[in-house]
Amino acid sequence: MKNKLYAPLFFAVSVSAFSQEKVTLSGTVANKSNNETLIGAIISVQETGVVVSTNSYGFYSLTLPQGDYTILISNSEFETFEEKISLTENTKRNFVLNETSRTKNIDEVVITKNSTKANIRTPEMSVNKLSIATIKKMPAVMGEVDVLKSILQLPGVSNAQEGGSGFNVRGGSADGNLVLLDEAVVYNTSHLFGFFSVFNSDVIKDLKLYKGGIPSNFGGRISSVLDIYQKEGNNKEFHINGGIGAVSSRLLVEGPIAKEKASFVIAGRASYAHLFLKLADEPNSAYFYDLNAKLNYKINDKNNLYLSGYFGKDDMSFNKSLMNDYGNSLFNARWNHIFSDKLFSNASLIYSKYDYGLKIKFAGLNWKSDIKNYNFKYDFKHYLSDKINLSYGVNAIYYQFNPGTIDPFDENFPVIPRQIAKKNAFESALYILAEQKLSNKLSVNYGLRYSNFQRLGAEKRTIYENGQAVVYNPELKVYEEGTPIGTVDYGKNKKIISFDNLEPRLAVAYSFNNNQSIKASYNRMSQYVHLISNTASVSPLDIWSPSDEYLRPEILNQVAFGYFQNFKSGKYSLETEVFYKKIKNKTDYVDGADLIANDAIERVLLTGEARSYGLEVLLRKNTGKLTGWLSYTLSKAEQRTPGRTAEEPGINNGEWYRANHDKTHNFSLTAAYQLTKKWSFGGIFTYQTGRAATFPNGKYQYQGITVANYGKRNADSLPAYHHLDLSATYTPKADSNKKWKSEWVFSIYNVYSRKNAASLTFGQNTDTGLSEASRISIFGIIPSVTYNFKF
C-alpha cells in the first residue's frame, strides 16, 4: 500500500520536472572600465554545461529551465566572472568584466589564464583569433605594430614577398580575401606598398580570420574573411593614448559625449620620413596618413546607433617625375535593435571606395581609377533554445567601377583625354545559418547562401568573331586578340548578364571530452569581382573588374578536417587541420599580356581551374611568463589552363603549374617573455620556401640583340625566405597616483640582415658578356624605437 502511494507521487514529480517551464537570460557583456561591449565573451552555466558566446555587439541569450544556476563569464585579458542567479522568469542581465592587473597597464602582455586554448566543443574551425594585446608585443618593421603582419605568423597564411601588399590564405590569391573593417570592404590593405597596413592597432577592438568553414553570412570572396571591428569609445571618462616612432606617429582620443549613453573615438596616424628626405635633398618622397572615427549612441535598452568611418591616403613621388597616390574611404551607419530576449538584429548602410592614380611627368599623363560600392545589410540572430540558434539576413551591393580616366598632365604633351568604359554591377544575397547542439558530444553548424550577380549598363559591349575575345594563331603558336565585329549598347542599369549560385556551408564537431575533439567542414563560395594583376603581390595600380561572359565568377569548394586538443589544463593547445580546395573559372593571362589601361581585358584572358591542399599545425603555450606558438604549413597551390580545342596549348600545354604564391613549407615561431614587471621581450622567426617564378632557360640573338627564352610558367622558385625579429619593451614603474602610463619599445627587424629576394632579374654583364642574375631585396636589418603613452 505504501509503495502504491509513492508510485503516483513519483510520477507526478517526474512529469513536473520534465514539463518545467523554461526562461531566458539575456543581455550584454562589457568592459567595466569603459563600457565597451566584448565580442566573443564566453557565458557558461556550470550546472548544465550550456555554453554561449556574445555576438559582434556583445549581446547574448540562453534559455534554461527555472532554477538556480552558477554563471561563469570569461574573455581574453579579463578576469573570469562568477555569479549565482535564480531564474524564475525571463531576465535581462548585463555583465561587466574587470581587466586583469596587467591589462590595465599599457604593455598588456601577460596571459594569466587560458584565453587562447583550443576551442573544443563548437564546430567553428579554420578560424584564428589574435588579441590586440598579443599583437602589440610582436616585433614589427620600423616599430609600427601591424595587424596584417601578425596574421602572417598563423598556419595557412603567407605573403607573396617581403614588403608586398596583401596576403594569401591556403593557396588562394590576394583578391580572394574579404577584408572588413566595421563591415565595410577594404580593397587595399597597405600603406607604402606593404611597409605598413591600413589598420591602426590602437583603435582595433577585435579581429577574426576565417580560412575555412566560413559561415553563410559571409560571401563574395573565396579564400578567407578577415573580420575587424573598431573600438566604440570610452563612455565613462576621457583618455588619450598614442606613440611616437622613427618614421610615424599616432594619437587616439576617446571619451563620453553623454556619460554612459554616448561616446566617441578618433584616431589619427601619419608618417613623416619624407620630411627627412627633403632635408637631405632626396628627390624621392613617400608618406601616408589615415584617420579612424566612431560614434555610438544608446537610444534605449533596445536600440543602439553606431557611426564609423575610415579615411587613408598614400602619396609617393619618384624624382618628381612619377607620382602615385591611392587610398581607402569607408563609412558605416549601423542600427542594433533587440526585438525580444531571443531576437537581435543589426541593419547597416555602408559606403566603400578605393581610388588610385598615377602621374607621369615625362609623358604628360595623369591616370585615375577607382571602385565604389554601396552596401545594405540586415542581419538577425534568433536564439530559439539552448540547443539551436538561427542567423539569417539579406545583403545588397551596388558597384561602380572606373578602370581608368586619362587626362593630360602637362599641356605641352599631346595626350588625348580618354575614359576607359565604366562598369556597374549589382550583387544580392539571402542566407540562413543554424547552430545546433545535437548532444553533449556532437554539435553542428549548417547554412545556405543564395547569391545573385548582375552586370549592368550603361556600357557599350564589343562583339567578337565566333564569340572569341582571344584566338590562337597556329602558325606563330601564340594567342592573339580576337576580331571585333560590332558592339551592343546597353542603357543605364540594363542587365547585361546575370549569375546565380547556391552556396551550402557545413561544420561538425565531435568532442571526446572537454580537452579533445575532431571537426570537419565544407563550404562552397562564389566570387564575382576580380583583381586584374599579373604580379605576385597586390599593387596599388591593379584594377578591379566585375564578372561577365569572359571573366566568369570563380566558384570554390573546400573541405577540411581537424583534430584539436588542450594539454595540462589548457596550458598547451594543439590544432591540426588538413584541407583541400578546388576552384573553377580561374583566369590567367596569355604571355605578354598588357593589363594597364586595357579597355578590353577579355582579349588577354584564358579560363582554367585551380586547386590547393595541405596540412596545418598550430602548437600554443597559453600561460606563464613565456607564451607563444609554433605554426607550420605544408601545402601545394596549382593552376591548370588547358586549350579550348585540341590544337590549342593553353598555358604550359594544359598541364598543372604552380600558382604565383605557392610556397611548399611555411614555418613560424612566435614568443613573448615577461622577465620582470618592467621588461618584456618578443621574437619571431619565419622560414618559407621560395615562391614560384619563371626563369630563362636559354637565349638567342635577334638583329644583334640578346633575347632571353623562358621555360614553362612558374617552373622555378625564388630562394628561401627567412628572417628573425626581436623586440624589448621597457615599462617604467607606474605611479598609482598618476594617470600617465608609458613604455619604450625597442625592436630589430631582420636581425641578421638576410637579403631576401623580392625578385630576380636576368641580364648580360657589359664587361664579361656573360648572362647573370641579380637579386632585388627590399629590407636589410632595421632597428627602431617607439615611445607609447596613455593617460
UniProtKB/TrEMBL annotation:
GO cellular component, one term: cell outer membrane
One GO process term, biological-process aspect: siderophore transmembrane transport
GO MF entry, a single one: siderophore uptake transmembrane transporter activity
UniProt topology in membrane: Multi-pass membrane protein
Compartment(s) where it occurs, according to its Swiss-Prot or TrEMBL record: Cell outer membrane
Domain TonB-dependent receptor-like beta-barrel as annotated: residue spans: 298-751
Keywords of the record: Cell outer membrane, Membrane, Receptor, Signal, TonB box, Transmembrane, Transmembrane beta strand, Transport
Domain TonB-dependent receptor plug, chain residue ranges per copy: 143-220
Major location (coarse): membrane
Domain of life: Bacteria
Signal peptide range in chain numbering: 1-19
Family: Belongs to the TonB-dependent receptor family.
UniProt-recorded name of the protein: TonB-dependent Receptor Plug Domain
Record organism: Epilithonimonas hungarica
